[in-house]
């Protein structure tokens, strides 16, 4: 655990002192980082236990005291950056959440506020629809019949099994992952001709054969040919 904590602090030092934005490089920070690197390689060394104190007689760069402060400080907390557009979901791609990133990639503009509010409202409605009534106890909840349970289907191709469901961008209902990816790539609805091709690709021929009923051919014994 101590080694893991030390590695995490070293990673924090690297991200704080030696990480730069290639689109807008800070020249002063770059020069200070180069001076600190030369000081560590030539004078101080790379062993944390043998590093000189910042208040010693050795002339050290400006970022050396900051580096020692980070190394001797407790482990920093793990905090995920928040999306710069909607400010509600954790950012995963270019400082944006997945929804804002896909909208920016498709339309070239930030995701508007009306869609952000609509997504929040849908999440609240879906979470409140499954909430338990306070007047009814947990053991008195009616158990639904799984045969009568309504299964979700794609509004475009009609399949009922997919890895992830998405909101229909051209109407009501939901889209499967294949139809949503096709719409984001081609900017049009997935045509029905591709449904048949996908269905043909997904047919498992081995499942269509009943191997128990298949009779193996019996070995035949060849009779000797009479020369007479």
TrEMBL record:
Residue stretches making up the GATA-type domain: 148-202
Keywords: Metal-binding, Zinc, Zinc-finger
Any GO MF annotation of the entry: zinc ion binding
Highest taxon listed in the record's lineage: Eukaryota
Signal peptide: none
The species this protein was found in: Phascolomyces articulosus
Name of the protein in question: GATA-type domain-containing protein
GO biological process: regulation of DNA-templated transcription
